[in-house]
# Entry
Amino acid sequence: MSRIAIALLAVASLTAQAQDAKPSREREALRRAQAALRAAQEQQSSMQADKAKAEADVARARQDAAAARALVASNAVKLGARETELDTLRAQLQAVKEAVQQGQAQAGEREQALQEQLLAARQEGQARQQANQALVQLLERSTQALADAEAKNRQLHALGQALVQRYAGRSTLDTALLDDPILGLTAVRFEDQAEQLRAALEAQRTR
# Structure
């Protein structure tokens, strides 16, 4: 039972009692009942205002909760997108690191290969230089040997020419004396000349 109903019952009861009481007492009771009624009405109005305010607060709280839930859901979606983007960036960074490492490894391999090629080229250059030096020395020796051979040929040619001239310039007397079994002087002289020519030829051969 509400306070207003209680107050109305009190007013009715006091009114009934006032019919049997004295007028002064009736007026006092009526005044009190009216005051109680006004107080009850004011209290009911206050309670209704408080109730409306509470309901409004509940409605605002529900709206705020719904907005908060929507904000949380939106932030969750954004967070998921950021995490996906972060995973993508991490994957790209890892790919870049791997590419850099692979490039460094390939660069090291290329550098090592170039160093080996440079070393091989240097060795080949040294071998060619040594071969060229050997060829130069061989050419010098061949040139010297050719010059010596040409000199020997010239000397041999000169000796041959001298021998031919001596043989062609031999007189009839020299021939007769060469065949003379008694004196044999001419034969001795020609033998000496022949020995000299053999010695000269032998000297040219042993050089």
Remarks:
- The chain has one domain: 3-169.
- The mean pLDDT is 76.
- Residues 3-169 form one domain.
- The CA atoms of residues 60 and 66 lie 10 Å apart.
